[in-house]
């Protein structure tokens, strides 16, 4: 099928090695806006998007990752978007996941690499992360579902589409 959207989806891969080149702010905003357009349960739009472009803020998160996990779970990325929603809402996980997927597809269409990072909620709720969470303006009533790290791949030879399992799709 010759369709740009389908091609973008089928060719998107997660990047885990970023160069120091920053993503322009207008592209970060476009990616976030694409996330904002994702479907939400009953159109309640309970999720929120936090775009991080400040080197200082990103370094706080990177240091937290090194302190708590013993590694840089952000793979050197210089841009990230945190997606979060209310802890007590039964649709937070689904709504935030839709936002993240829209952003990954948008980034790929703009030739920007991305990767879903799951550890940020754990990091921010660690005793060492409480100050960072407050600094980001997030209270204890929210859950970070995922973080979309963004940037340009340092070594594109490491990017490849992984094979999918057999019988992934069933038709009945």
Can you describe this structure?
This protein is of the alpha+beta class and 172 residues long. The protein has one domain (4-156): NADH Oxidase (3-Layer(aba) Sandwich), CATH 3.40.109. The chain contains six helices and four strands. The chain has helices at residues 4-11, 25-36, 55-69, 92-109, 120-125, 130-135; strands at 48-52, 79-86, 113-117, 142-151. Strands 1-2-4-3 form a four-stranded antiparallel β-sheet. It is globular, with a radius of gyration of 16 Å. The model has no long low-confidence stretch (mean pLDDT 94).
Number of domain modules: 1
As residue ranges, the low-confidence spans are none
How do the SSEs run, as a string of H and E?
Answer: HHEHEHEHHE
Gyration radius from CA atoms, angstroms = 16 Å
Q: Quick one: biggest sheet?
A: 4 strands, antiparallel
Name of the CATH first level: Alpha Beta
Shape, per Cα inertia axes: globular
Fourth CATH level, the homologous superfamily: NADH Oxidase
Please tell me the overall pLDDT. Answer: 94
Kindly name the structural category: alpha+beta
Helix coverage percent: 25-40%
Question: Which topology does CATH recognise?
Answer: NADH Oxidase
Record field, number of beta strands: 4
Oligomer: single chain
Number of helices: 6
Strand order of the largest sheet: 1-2-4-3
Features:
172 residues; alpha+beta; 4-stranded antiparallel sheet; 6 helices; NADH Oxidase
């Amino acid at each position: 099928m010759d369709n740009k959207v389908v091609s973008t989806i089928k060719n998107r891969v997660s990047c885990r090695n970023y160069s120091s080149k920053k993503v322009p702010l207008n592209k970060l905003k476009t990616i976030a806006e694409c996330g904002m357009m994702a479907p939400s349960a009953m159109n309640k739009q309970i999720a929120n998007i936090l775009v991080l472009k400040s080197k200082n803020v990103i370094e706080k998160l990177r240091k937290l990752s090194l302190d708590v996990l013993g590694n840089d779970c952000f793979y050197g990325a210089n841009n990230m978007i945190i997606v979060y929603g209310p802890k007590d809402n039964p649709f937070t996980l689904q709504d935030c996941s839709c936002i993240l997927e829209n952003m990954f597809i948008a980034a790929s269409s703009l030739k920007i690499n991305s990767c879903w990072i799951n550890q940020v909620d754990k990091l921010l709720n660690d005793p060492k992360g409480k100050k960072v969470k407050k600094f980001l303006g997030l209270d204890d009533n929210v859950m970070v579902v995922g973080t979309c790290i963004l940037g340009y791949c340092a070594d594109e030879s490491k990017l490849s589409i992984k094979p999918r399992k057999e019988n992934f799709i069933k038709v009945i």
